[in-house]
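Dear all,

This email documents one entry for the complex benchmark we are building for the journal club exercise. For each entry we list the sequence lines for every component of the assembly. Then comes the predicted three-dimensional structure of the complex as a token string, followed by one or two observations. Please use this as the template for your own entries, and keep the labels exactly as they appear.
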Amino acid sequence: LNSGMFVHVRHMLHDMPASDVALILESSPPKTREVLWQLIEHNQAGSILEELGEELKDSFIMNMSPERVAKATAGMDTDDLAYVLRSLPDSIYQQVLQSMSSQDRLRVEHALSYPEDTAGSIMNNDTVTIRPDVTIDVILRYLRSRGSLPEATDTLYVVDRKDAFLGGIALSDLLTCDPNLSVKAVMNLDLEGIPVMMEDTDVAQLFERHDWISAPVISDNGKLLGRITIDDVVDIIREDAEHSMMGMAGMEDDADTFGPVLKSSFRRSMWLIINLFSAFLAASVSNMFEGTIEEFATLAILMTIVPSMGGVAGNQTLALVIRGIALGHIGKSNSRWLIGKELAIGFLNGVFWAAIVFGSVWMWRGDILLASLIAGAMLINMTVAGLSGAVIPIVLKKFNIDPALAGGMLLTTVTDVIGLFSFLGLATLFLMQ
Amino acid sequence: LNSGMFVHVRHMLHDMPASDVALILESSPPKTREVLWQLIEHNQAGSILEELGEELKDSFIMNMSPERVAKATAGMDTDDLAYVLRSLPDSIYQQVLQSMSSQDRLRVEHALSYPEDTAGSIMNNDTVTIRPDVTIDVILRYLRSRGSLPEATDTLYVVDRKDAFLGGIALSDLLTCDPNLSVKAVMNLDLEGIPVMMEDTDVAQLFERHDWISAPVISDNGKLLGRITIDDVVDIIREDAEHSMMGMAGMEDDADTFGPVLKSSFRRSMWLIINLFSAFLAASVSNMFEGTIEEFATLAILMTIVPSMGGVAGNQTLALVIRGIALGHIGKSNSRWLIGKELAIGFLNGVFWAAIVFGSVWMWRGDILLASLIAGAMLINMTVAGLSGAVIPIVLKKFNIDPALAGGMLLTTVTDVIGLFSFLGLATLFLMQ
């Protein structure tokens, strides 16, 4: 970008929808990002921030003055605003709150009073409520005088004088029903209210299962508190799924693809240090059999095959079970059955691959005893892999540890250690007499 | 389940929403599933099928008579119906089509004419269209006489006499605007039509970026063909994300958590056979250095550490790049920058972990030359891992090969081979003189 282009780019950015500007920022290297961010108009900044990934959003906000943050966030939805504030350091956070209009402050303090990852934290308070005892015609006239509805409004909620949630009327029903009927006669009583403390992943599952576009959020005593809209749910679904995928590879799910080198390499080191321990643990297993390896170098050449196959088979089971947990398919009643099934698959896999590896090694090294040893180790390790691929995530989940993050490393450690131990152990038993 | 319970369970299933019945079926072992499926009323079967995962849905449909399939699917949305039919074997497929009412057949044949994974294949044709030259009041009266609107309708589409797409009016605007205005005056002209051949993942990205609830689908010459709704888009987002996660672990994304043992173990074998080749390739690298290993058994004990660290580091980069590709963040303009960045991180990681492993091995084995050799190999392999973690998915994508499925195995092969080769190669150079 040369300096003559700046004006042109500024105009271009100004004319683009916020989501497209966000996409450009996400896809640019750090330096380009900073230049582009400088060119963005103050009143556009808020809606662009809303669309950015977590890591990038945080890094921009850290470098803004509290006043500018307050200004940029003035038009945001309550839930998004609360989300941004949560990620700020305490000192800046207080300053931003102070710089806000008192109405915005009240709104956001209310949202912040709910714990992160609950229905309350992703809820908006822009619900349009109506009373049960008026006619549809009155509602239609009220809406016309109101002039516009909040985004993603598909249902008006019916509450009594004390804000207790009674039901809802879909906009499409308002348009198609007889205007002389009362709200009470038309409203949908089956509409479920979401408890404000429900976990956001459970909320997402409800939305998916019922094809909702928005849903009311209610307090313990049945009062309407706000609503959750499908766009926030889509973000949760995307984040959860990414979390599983990135977690299994040992990455945080908000990692920024185009973030700076040093920061990125620091963030990845946690996983590598755990893996180093795991690798040294495996090495110390081999070390127990140093004498055997010294005598039979062929063992060293073949000893990586069994752990490798166990790792892949175990990871297949792990991925399946982690997805099952995330989708809510796995609970107390069926986890024992599932573990049994995966154990059976592991054993079957073990028999099959033991036969294949027996044939391959016999052909390659022409040693039937060696081929039998590796086949035996394969059978043991594949069975263990199937079992632990199912048991590890289920047990981790029971202790409230995230299986996507901790499961892969634990599993690989198990299959490496058991794989090496069974192969070298069998070899020591049968070769060293 | 004893036989006295059957009637009770049948009633329970009948009273439940289809999505909850589907969840129960998904979470049950094969035998329980069959029994439950027998208890489900014929007229409920269609809506339950719609909610099931691919593998399970197929297995139920395979066992139904064509007439029952036709009956069960009579009430389905066009796109879901087309989806079900696509997965049937040709013979059953023709029979099901024959058993359908001619209207349903026409509808579904039209949907089937679009290739899978395009906007056309997920489109419904239940759009409500209006003309531009009438007043809002006429529309309101038309809707009231119509009586109800299709699910997830948030916008009516405006078309001319030849079905050319002109724009849309949101239901909320219909409710709040002056009824004396004409459709032309109120309608939103900025509404984008989705080209019917657009890839479904691109459609999902548009929905996410613009927070759409439904969007019109148009033909090449601008005619309105139908609409896509957010519920189908949510399924695509979920499937794509699962595909990346399951693919990286070598599983198909429609694998059924509670499917039968033999089928499951067969479906996983593809990945294991590729891994066996990869493991033998790594073994044959070690085999090249048999002489060196025979002389120094310590090498065998340490030789798994370098490939293991390279594998983890490479997989971190791979996961990041695969997610970036899926989100549309990575294109021609920035892929070179990204590869450079990951190479730099790989090198930095290499220097850091070389130092750590140097210290650890020196302490453990007390051999400074051995420690230097493994450190050198670590530096080489971590740099290669960073580079290939970025290059492999980008190149695969260029050749239209799915990076989530093929990337992980290719990467592990590279890091295993380079890891062993560099460590044992350096050892042969410096130890065998």
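Observations: Chain A is about 65% helix and 5% strand. Chain A has three domains: 3-113, 129-229, 268-431.
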